[in-house]
Amino acid sequence: PRSIHTHARAMYASLGQPSLSSSSKKDWKLTASLALNAGLFAGLCFLGFQGGDLSTGIARTRAVAPPMVAPRTAGCRNVRVGAESRRGAMAGIGTFAAAGLFGQLNKASAEYGDPANVFGKVTNSKGFIPTKRDEYSFLLPSKWLYSTERDFDNIVERYQDNFDAVNFAAIIKKKVDGKTSVDQLGSPEEFLKSCDFLFGKQAWTGETKSEGGFKPGSVSALSLLDIDERTDKKGTKYYNYELLSRTADGDEGGRHKLVSAAVKNGQLYIVFIQVGDKRWFKGTDKEALGLRDSFTLA
Fold this sequence. Notes:
Elements: H1 2-15, H2 22-64, H3 74-77, H4 79-116, E1 128-132, E2 136-141, E3 144-146, E4 155-161, E5 168-175, H5 188-194, E6 220-231, E7 237-247, E8 255-264, E9 267-276, H6 277-294, E10 296-297
Antiparallel strand pairs: 1-2, 2-10, 3-4, 4-5, 5-9, 6-7, 7-8, 8-9
Helix pairs in contact: 1-2, 2-4
C-alpha cells in the first residue's frame, strides 16, 4: 500500500498544474482521479494474485510435509486469522476502488457524452429544435441546416435538409405599410395570386400535346391541394397553403410547397417550404408541416 500511494503521488506530480480555465481544471481533475483509481485497483489486484499463489503453496506443503505441532501462543494462533482479515480488507478496498473508477467513467459519460452525442443516445426525441427570433419563432427540423442561398428577394433566413438539398425552407419579410392583418391583403385566394413568384413560371414556349396530365403547350403544372386559415393566441391571423408542382421531366415526382403568411406592425411574413414528392411520403412531410404550423409572430 505504501508503494501504491507513492506511485499515485508520482502520477499526480507528472500531470502538472491545471490551467486557469474551468474546462481544463475539470479535465485535469478527472484525469488524475481516473489514474489514481486505476493504479490503486491494479496494485490491489496484483497483491491479491500474489496472496492467492502463497496460500496455494502453503496448502501443497501441508499436504506433503508431516504435521507439526506448534506452541499455542497468541502470535502463532492469530497468524491465519490475520491473513484472512488482511485479505478481506484488501477485497473491500479493491471493491471501493473499482466502484470509484466506474463512477468516474459514468461521470465522464454524463458530462461529455450526452451533449456531443458521442455515445449514440437520442438527445432530441421530437425531431425539432425550438428557434426564437425577436419578431417570430418556429420549430426547426433537427436535420435541417442554415443555408446562405437566397432564392427570392427579402429572404431573412433559409434552411435546407442536410440529406437532400431539394428540401428547404425560407422566411421572407416584406413591408406592407398601413396593414395590420393578412386579410387586409385580400382573401386567401387573392393573396395566393400575389405570391406567384414563389412557384416560378414556365420559361419554355412551344407546341406540345396533352400528355402526362399537362395542358397542350405546357410542360409544368401547379395544383392547390389545401387552403385554410388559423389564428394564434394573440389574435394574429395566418393564411396556410399546400400546393404540388410538377414538370415534364418528372424529377422527384414533383415538389410539395407549403406557405404560411401573416402580417404584423406593417410587415408581411411568409414561410415558404419545398419538399420533393418522394421525400414527402418518406416522413419529410411531418418535418415540413411541423415547421409551417409552428411559425408564430411575436
